[in-house]
Amino acid sequence: MTLTIRPEQPGDHAAVDSLLRAAFADHPHSRQTEHLLVSALREEGALSLALVAEEAGEVLGYLAASPVTIDGAYLGWLGLGPLAVLPARQRAGIGSALAEACLRRLRADGVAGCVLVGDPAYYARFGFVVDDTLVFPGIPAQYCQALRLQPQAVAVRGEVAFHPAFTRFG
């Protein structure tokens, strides 16, 4: 069967909720509230992009992107996450396919860059680097990463703030 990456649709919400619950159920750095985070981002109109990976009509993976501010200003940068894949289908390239599709789309849409909090060994394959010019309050620096998507994008430095839903549910 063929894996399809497409924008999330309203009919996907229950499947995405279930996927997020399953994917983060045993994650050591999760409060198991990712489904609440995504729901809040949807309700508040704060999802710049939400993609699902599906096969034979089953939602297997999900990736969201939402605006971030840097030193209080929106500079055209987005925060990536959460990225989730059903546990039984992890390590099969679904997360990578979602990340690559997301970054292609964001580049094409002219998004300046992306930041995320995650495993540097995983996200380096997409070009993300630990960036000590950006501060993510309360998060160890080795997990704070950035990727400039447009060559002409202004270099950024300062304190990164994700949408307030991340404070409530992240």
UniProtKB/TrEMBL annotation:
Signal sequence region: none
Q: What are the entry keywords?
A: Acyltransferase, Transferase
InterPro entries per UniProt: Acyl_CoA_acyltransferase, Bact_Acetyltransf, GNAT_dom
Domain N-acetyltransferase, by residue range, is 3-154
Keyword Membrane assigned to the entry: answer is no
Q: Which Pfam families match?
A: Acetyltransf_7
Superkingdom, taxonomy of origin: Bacteria
Output the CDD domains linked to this UniProt entry: NAT_SF
Keyword rRNA-binding present in the record's keywords: the answer is no
Question: What is the protein's given name?
Answer: N-acetyltransferase
User: Which lineage?
Assistant: Bacteria, Pseudomonadati, Pseudomonadota, Gammaproteobacteria, Pseudomonadales
